[in-house]
Amino acid sequence: MRALAEWVMRGRRYAIGASMVGASIPLLNWLSTAIVSLVVLRKGAVEGLIVLLWAVLPLGIAVYFVGDPMPVIALVGTAIMAYILRVTLSWEFAIAVAVIASAIGSLVFEYTAADLLVMLVEFYVEFSKQNSIEVSSEAARTAIVGIYAMGQACGMCALLVLARWWQSQLYNPGGFQKEFHQIRMTPWFSTGIVVVMMVSVIFDDQLGRWLPLLTVPLVFSGIALVHWTFGFRKMSVNWVIAFYLLLILLSNLIYPILAALALMDSYLDLRQRIQTKKV
Fold first, then answer.
1. What are the residue ranges spanned by the domains of the chain?
2. CB contact burial 137-160 (16+ within 10 A = b; e otherwise)
3. pLDDT digit string (tens) for 73-84?
4. What backbone phi and psi angles, to 5 degrees, belong to 128?
C-alpha cells in the first residue's frame, strides 16, 4: 500500500490515473476515494479538486447505470473531511463533517435510488419474516436509510484514516499512530450528540433513523481509546486483531460499549487518569 501511495504522489498525472482506474472498478471505489483524500491532505484543496473531478467521471457513469450514489457521496464527503483535517488538524471536526455528509447522502439515496431501495426494503421485510419479526415496509425503509447513513459515515472515516496513514508513512513516520491515539471527543461535542440522540428518541417516527449515524463519532473515539490503551500497555498486535474480531462477531455488544467508553473519556479524560495513576 505504501508503494502505491509513493507512486500516486509522484505527480498529478499519476494521481489522476490511479484514481480513475480505482473509480472504474466497482470493488476498488474505496481506493480512488483514499487517493483523492491523500492528495488533499498533502497538496491542498485545489490540487485535490482537480483529481476529484477526474475520478468523478467513471463514478458518475456507474451511478447512472446502477443507481447507487454512495461512491460519489463517499468520494466528495471524504475529500471534504480531508480538507477540514488539513486546515484544522481536528478529527472531531472531520468526523462531524462525515455525519452531516452521510445524512445528506442518505437522503439523496432515498430519493434518487428508488428501485434499489425497493429491492432492499423487500429483502429486509422478507428477512425479518424468516426470523419471526413483523416489519412494515415503511419501518424497513426507515431502518435501511439509517443503516445506509451509518455505513456511509463509517466508510468515510475509515478511508480518511487510510489516507492519513499513507501521508504519515511517506512524510511523517510514526506520526499517525500518535495522532490517532489522541482522538477524543470534547465534552461539548459529546453533549451535543447526546442531546440530538435524545431528541431523536422522543421524535422517533421522524428522527429515529438518525440514531445509528449519531453513534459513529463516539464509536470512532472509543476505537482510538482502545488503540491507545494497547499502545500504552505495550500489548502485542494480537490484541488488536482480537479486538477487531470481537467487534465484527459481537458488534451488538461491543459497539455500545465503545460508545459508552467514548462518553466517559470525553468527560473524564481516561487517558490522563490512567497515565497519572501509573506514575
1. 1-181, 182-279
2. eebbbbbbbbbbbbbbbbbbbebb
3. 899 999 999 999
4. -65, -40
